[in-house]
């Protein structure tokens, strides 16, 4: 009778060991699968962000191609020459504005100062060369 009890205890012990082993293997597979699903989700998010970036770059590319086509034409070329190079046609009068530099480093168009606060010309030259 004692042998039967021991054999039942061994069977129960083996069953528990098999159950624990099976649960461990099953847990490993569940966590591995969960990691794969999470990785897939992250990759899909990155792919969506890249698709949006590609779309935005395609729109910008189309805009720049349109600008390039315009600038290759006579009107665009003339506009760029007038704006950036100061080109004027014969008979036209060109106006050049000289920007001044503020204390904070920004450039601005000079304004006319009142005569009382304006320095003499020799003093401005002196300041330009020796205090610059």
Helical residue percent band:
over 70%
Give me the side-by-side strand order of the main sheet.
1-2
SSE sequence, one letter per element: HHEEH
Specify the number of helices: 3
Broad shape = elongated
| Number of β-strand runs | 2
Uncertain residue segments: none
User: Which secondary-structure class do the elements indicate?
Assistant: mainly alpha
Radius of gyration: 41 Å
- β-sheet strand percentage: under 5%
Question: What is the CA–CA distance across the termini?
Answer: 112 Å
Average pLDDT taken over every residue: 82
| Main sheet makeup | 2 strands, antiparallel
Short description:
The chain has 132 residues and is mainly alpha-helical. Helices cover 70% and strands 3% of the residues. The longest helix is centred in the first third of the chain and has 71 residues, at 2-72.
Descriptive overview:
With 132 residues, the chain is mostly helical. It is 70% helix and 3% strand. The protein has 3 helices and 2 strands; from the N terminus they run ααββα. It has helices at 2-72, 74-85, 121-130, and strands at residues 100-101, 107-108. A two-stranded antiparallel ribbon has the order 1-2. β1 and β2 form a beta hairpin. The model has no long low-confidence stretch (mean pLDDT 82).
């Amino acid at each position: 009778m004692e042998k039967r009890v021991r054999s039942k205890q061994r069977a129960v012990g083996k069953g528990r060991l098999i159950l624990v082993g099976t649960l461990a293997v099953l847990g490993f597979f569940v966590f591995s699968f969960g990691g794969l699903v999470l990785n897939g989700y992250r990759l899909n998010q990155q792919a969506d962000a890249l698709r949006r970036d590609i779309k935005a770059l395609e729109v910008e590319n189309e805009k720049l191609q349109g600008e390039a086509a315009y600038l290759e034409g006579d009107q665009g070329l003339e506009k760029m020459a007038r704006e950036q190079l100061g080109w004027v046609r014969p008979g036209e009068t060109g106006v050049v504005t000289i920007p001044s530099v503020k204390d904070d480093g920004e450039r601005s168009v000079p304004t006319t100062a009142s005569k009382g606060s304006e320095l003499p010309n020799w003093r401005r030259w002196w300041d330009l060369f020796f205090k610059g």
